[in-house]
Input
Amino acid sequence: MLSPAASPVAKALDPAPTAAHAGAAAGTRPRHAWVDVARGLVVTMVVVMHVGIYHYLPMTQGEGANAFWTGVNSVLQVLRMPSLLILSGWLAGSRIRAGLGDPRTRRSIAANAYLYVLWLALYTVIAVALGATTMAQAPAPSTFLGQLLTPYSTLWFLAALAWYTLALAALRRAPAAAVLAGLFALGWVSTVVWPVEYGLWANIPHMAIFFGIGVYARPAIEAIGRRPVVTLVAGVGVATLAGEIARSLTASDLPAYPATVAQSLAGVAAVFGAASLLTRYAERATRPLAWVGRRTLAIYVGHYPVIMLLSTVSAGALYDVDRAVLADGLGAWLYPILATGMIVLVGVVARELAGRLRLGWLFQMPQRTPLARPLRAALTRPLRAALARPLRMPLARPLRTLVPAR
Output
C-alpha cells in the first residue's frame, strides 16, 4: 500500500479537506469555502493561457478571435501564477514555520523534487514519442540533465516550490518584513539580470515574492472572505491603475517591477474576492469549480502533454475534429474554452484511473516502497552532510541543529 508524503504541491493543487469542508462536516458555516473555487479558477487560467500560447494562437494568426484571445492571455499573464503561488505559500506556511528540523518540512521538499523530476522525465519521453521536442518549452533528452537545476518547461512551478520551501524554512527565524523585502529585491534585480527570455526558470526568482506573501500574509488572505465585494472592486481598480503605470514606465524605459507586482497583487485580490463572492451567493453554480479545485494537481502536470498531442497530431479523428472546430467561425472563437474543458476532463479522469490502477506514485511521492527510503536519502543527504560538518564559526551549532541526525 502506498502512503503518500504530503507536500506543498499536494496541498496547493490536490489538497486535503480545508476548513471549509471541516466546518461543513461539523454543521457550522464554512470559513474558507472560496479557496477551492479559487483553485479551480486559477488552474483553469493556466490551461487556457497555455492552450493559447502553445497551440491556438499560432494557428489563428490575423483573425479576430486571435486578437481577442491574445488580450485575454495578457490579463491571465498577470493573474494566474501569482494567484497559484500565493495559495501555495499560504498552504505551506505551517511547514515553513516549523523549519528544516521538522521531518515534515524535509519530506515536503523531497516530495516536490520527486514530482518535478518524475514529470520532467515523463514530459521528455512524451515529447520524443510525439516528435514534439522542438515545440516551445518541450523538454528533450539533450536538455534533461540541465533542466534538473534550470527548468525550461512549464513544470518550473514544481521546482520553485521545492526551492522556496527550502529557503524560507531555513530563514524561519528571520523577521517576515526582512524576508519579504529580500524577496522583492531578488525579484526586481533578477528581472533585469535574467529576463524571462532566458528561460522559464527565471520565473523562480521573479515570482518568489508572491510565495512569500502567501506564507506571511495569512490573516490578510483569510480576511478576503469577510469583505469579498470591497476586495473585488478595489482589486480591479488598483490592478487597472497599476497596469497603466507599469505600461507607462516600460514605454519610458524605466523600472516597472514595483508597479507590475502591485498590479498582480491587486489582480490576485480581485480573483480571490470574486471566488468568495461567487461561493457566498451562487454556491451551487460554483460546485464544479470547487470540485476541479480539489483535483487540480493532475490537471496542472497533465495539461501540457495533451497540448503537445493536439499540436503534433497530423491525421485521425482527433486531428479532424480539432481542425473542424478551428475552421468553423464560432468554433474559432470558442476553441480555447472547448480545449480547456477537454484537458480538465482528461486530467481528472487520469487522476481517478491512477488511484484505481495503483499508480498513485504519479501524483504523490510514495513513502513505503523499496525505493522510497533510498530516494529520500539521496535527496536530503547532501543537505544533511553539509550542515553536519564542524564549522569554526559562531553559527556552527545552530546550523547543525537544522537537520538533526536520525
In short: The radius of gyration is 22 Å. Residues 1-7, 18-31 have pLDDT under 50 and may be disordered.
